[in-house]
Amino acid sequence: MDSTPLHIGYACINLSLQANKITTNRGMVKKTFTEKGIAYASELALKNVRDLLTIVDWNLEHGFQLFRISSDLFPWASEYRIATLPDFAEIRETLEEIGARPIRLTMHPGPFNHLAGQGKVLENTIKDLEYQSDVFDLMGLKPSHWNKINIHAGGTYGDKAATLARFAKNFSLLSENLRARLTVENDDRPSLYTVTDLVSLYEAIGTPIVFDYFHHSLNPGSQTEEEAFLTAYNTWDVRPVFHYSDSRQEYEDPKARREAHADWLYSAVNTYGREVDIVFESKMKELSILRLRGETIEVVPK
DNA sequence: CGCGGTCAAGCTCTG
DNA sequence: CAGAGCTTGACCGCG
Fold this sequence. Notes:
Layout: E1 8-11, H1 15-18, H2 30-61, E2 66-69, H3 88-99, E3 104-107, H4 120-138, E4 149-152, H5 160-171, H6 176-181, E5 182-185, H7 195-205, E6 209-210, H8 213-218, H9 225-233, E7 241-244, H10 248-251, E8 277-280, H11 285-293
Parallel strand pairs: 1-2, 1-8, 2-3, 4-5, 5-6, 7-8
The chain binds a DNA duplex through residues 11-13, 23, 25-33, 68, 70-72, 76, 78, 107-114, 117, 120-121, 124-125, 128, 150, 152, 154-157, 188-189, 191-192, 257, 259-260, 281, 283, 285.
């Protein structure tokens, strides 16, 4: 196992900086949004975006050239256009600065996105995904799978094939830039989508498959890890980003649900001699990777 | 200022 | 049949 991922990263939260209140997840409940409106949303978004720049720079200083950014940078983003925010000028400036950094940024919008959905569900999905793509546009990033916007296929509605066909049909409703960025990931439960299930989607609309090692182990379908890895690998037109985490049940708590991710990382990643970037989805975030490297870092507020 | 109840969205599974 | 969990806990009112 001599092949090291070229870029490694983690998802959304930097625990070292969060200890000093540097975070990109500021939001508000519905009541507050109703009371304070987009002025407050703008204020929170600007703070989130500024802290994202700090996190990106921390990452570069610590050898992380890949980072999944939060999909909650802009609270209640579905209710306004980013360009209408009072702090838009500063927000855009900061996003441009982030986009110019030598780091690969990705997104993983939430589980409410169902591109195969209908009516309101589909409407909300398109709105959310387009907003995420707008953020990458504002960063000045050329649309490609290098900066993936990754989602799951969603529910099955009792019929996987028909649902994937609807997903493919609705894909044509998306903007060109979003279509160029969208990827899909294999699911962790046997009722949902395996890598081979997603191949038909790739054949129909060219969306690369994000291989999640842990999900595959829980829902392998008919493929071995190597087969699924290579199947997914071959759907990419740039270096793939794959996801890795260890099982909480296996390594930390026998009573944990089988889908639960471990806090830390335990086993080595086999990339089968291929060049891939890896997002580690361990609960202890960057700390679990630093620990693997034999580095430690104090997480205490300054 | 720290604590705990509460929180947009959709689907699936668990208890 | 209500609630947890998902990708990632965080907000906010109360004492």
